[in-house]
Design a protein that fits this description.
This protein is α+β, with helices and mostly antiparallel strands. It contains four helices and six strands. The strands form three sheets. It has a two-stranded antiparallel ribbon. A two-stranded antiparallel ribbon has the order 3-4. Strands 5-6 form a two-stranded antiparallel sheet.
Amino acid sequence: MAEDLMSLGTHCTHPGCRQLDFLPFKCVKCDGIYCVKHREERTHNCTNPDLGNTQIPTCPLCNQMIKRAQNQSANDQVEAHILSGCKDLILTKPTKKHSNRCAYKSCRNYELIPFTCPHCHKNFCIRHRLENTHGCSVSPTMISVH
C-alpha cells in the first residue's frame, strides 16, 4: 500500500531538492518537473527562459517588428535582422478581410450574418436591409408577385 502511494507522486528535478510532490508543476520551457518551491523560472534556473516569450522584438534601427523563431532568442533574431540590412525577418501585420460589408454607399457597417437583397443580390446591414432603405436598383415593375 505504501509503495502504491509513492508511485503516485513525482520527485522535483531541481538539484538538491528531489522532494516528492503529488501535484508537481511542469515547466513549459525546459520540460522539468518541479515542486511548488521551484515552479517559477527564476527559482529553478530555467535553461530556456526565452523559449515561451511572447513579446515581439523590435529593431532599434528601423523600428519594425521582427519575426521570432521558436528555437532562437529575441536577441539572435534582432541581430540576424540587422546583419541583413534591416530587410529580412520583418513581421507584417495580417490584413483583415472584411466580408459582409454593407453595400449602401455611405455605410461602413459589417454584419456577422449578411442580409442579401433578393432583388439586387447585394449584402446590407440590418439598417439598410429593406429595399426602400437602400434604394434598390430593381424597379417595382420587375418584381413579380406570386
